[in-house]
Design a protein that fits this description.
FAD/NAD(P)-binding domain, five-stranded parallel sheet, alpha/beta, binds NADP nicotinamide-adenine-dinucleotide phosphate, single chain, 27% strand, 7 helices, seven-stranded mixed sheet
Length: 301
C-alpha cells in the first residue's frame, strides 16, 4: 500500500515528488512513457527561474528527477492504463501491476494537438513548435507561420509579433473562432498577416524548416512560402483519457479542481496542465505540484 502515488513526471509531478518525499510520504511516481512531459519537446528554456544562462528542456527535467531521487522518490517508468477511484484504497493499473494507494496526485499534463503531417512531426524542435512562449525568442527577425484560428493561435501570433520579421497566420475557414478582441489586437500588428481558407499541406526542409506548402481550400491553389518557423496552435488536449467516469472532468476533458488542487474525490488531487488550460507554464505547474503535495500531507494527517 502506497501513501501517495503521483501520476506524471513533468514539472508538476516532479515538484510534487520533491515535496512529498521531503514530507516523509515515500511517494511513487508513475512517470509514463512520455516521461518529463512537454519540456522534453523544447530546446532552450529561458524563463524558468534559477537558470540565468537558460537550460535545455530535457536537462531541466533530468535535474528535477535527480532532485526527487535524492530524497528517495520511487519511480515506475510505465504508463497508467486505468484507475479505480470508487473503492478505498484507490487502485491504479499500470502496464505491469495493480497498485493500491491512500492518495493520488494526477499530473499527467496536456499535449499540444498536432496536424500529424509527416514533415511536421519530423521537424518538431527544428523549427516546428507548439509553444511561442517557449521558443519564440529563437525566431528573432525570422519569417514565421502560425496555424489555427482560436484564442491560442491569436496569443501565439501576438507573442511572435514581438520577435519575428513577418508572421503569417493561416486558418482553415473564413471566420475565426477566437474572441474578436484578440483578433483585432493581432490584426493591428504591422508584421502580422492573416490568410483565411488556407491549410498547411507540408513543412519543407530536411534538417530544419525552410518553407511551407499551403493550399487554398476554396480554389485548391497550392503555394509555397519561405519560412523559418512553423507554430501549430490548434489547441491542447489534457491527458485524462484514463479518468473518464472516475472523476469530474470539464467539457474539454480537464480535471475540475476546487481550492487549487482538490478534485471531486477526496484524496485525489490534480496539478499542472491537466487541470489548468489558462497559464500552462512550467513554473506554474511546478507551483501547483508543490501545493498538491502539501494538500496530500494535510489529507493523510
Ligand atoms: P480552440 O478554441 O478549439 O481553437 C482551435 C482552432 O484550431 C480552431 O480555429 C480550429 O479551426 C483550428 N483547428 C483545429 N484543428 C485543426 C486542424 N486539424 N487543422 C487546421 N485547423 C485546426 O482551441 P484554443 O485556441 O487552444 O482555445 C482553447 C480554449 O482555451 C478556449 O476556450 C480559449 O478561449 C481558451 N484560451 C484562452 C486564451 C486567452 O487568452 N483568453 C488563450 C488561449 C486559450 P475551426 O475554427 O475551423 O474549428
Amino acid at each position: 500500500m502506497e501513501k501517495v502515488v503521483i501520476i506524471g513526471s513533468g514539472p508538476a509531478g516532479l515538484t510534487a515528488a520533491i515535496y512529498a518525499s521531503r514530507g516523509n510520504l515515500d511517494p511513487l511516481v508513475i512517470s509514463g512513457r512520455g516521461a518529463g512531459g512537454q519540456l522534453m519537446l523544447t530546446t532552450d528554456v529561458d524563463d524558468f527561474p534559477g537558470f540565468p544562462e537558460g537550460i535545455q528542456g530535457p536537462d531541466l527535467m533530468l535535474k528535477m528527477r535527480a532532485q526527487a531521487e535524492r530524497f528517495k522518490t520511487k519511480f515506475l517508468d510505465e504508463d497508467v492504463l486505468s484507475v479505480n477511484f470508487k473503492n478505498r484504497p484507490f487502485e491504479i493499473q499500470t502496464e505491469s501491476q495493480t497498485l493500491k494507494t491512500k492518495s493520488v496526485i494526477i499530473a499527467t499534463g496536456a499535449s499540444a494537438m498536432w496536424l500529424n503531417l509527416e514533415s511536421e512531426q519530423r521537424l518538431i524542435g527544428k523549427g516546428v513548435s507548439a509553444c511561442a512562449v517557449c521558443d519564440g525568442f529563437f525566431f528573432k527577425e525570422k519569417n514565421i507561420l502560425v496555424v489555427g484560428g482560436g484564442d491560442t493561435a491569436m496569443r501565439e501570433a501576438q507573442h511572435l509579433a514581438k520577435f519575428g520579421k513577418k508572421i503569417i497566420l493561416i486558418h482553415r475557414r473564413e471566420e475565426f473562432r477566437a474572441q474578436p478582441v484578440l483578433v483585432s489586437l493581432v490584426r493591428s500588428k504591422p508584421n502580422v498577416e492573416f490568410m483565411m481558407n488556407t491549410t498547411l499541406e507540408e513543412v519543407l526542409g530536411e534538417e530544419k524548416v525552410k518553407g511551407v506548402r499551403l493550399k487554398n481550400t476554396q480554389t485548391g491553389k497550392i503555394s509555397k512560402l519561405e519560412m523559418d518557423g512553423v507554430f501549430i496552435a490548434i489547441g491542447h488536449k489534457p491527458n485524462t483519457f484514463f479518468l473518464t467516469g472516475e472523476i469530474e472532468l470539464d467539457e474539454k476533458g480537464y480535471i475540475v479542481v476546487k481550492n487549487h488542487t482538490k478534485t471531486s474525490i477526496n484524496g485525489i488531487f490534480a496539478a499542472g496542465d491537466v487541470s489548468d488550460h489558462h497559464y500552462r507554464q512550467a513554473v506554474t505547474a511546478a507551483g501547483a505540484g508543490c501545493m498538491a503535495a502539501l494538500d496530500v500531507e494535510e489529507y493523510l494527517d
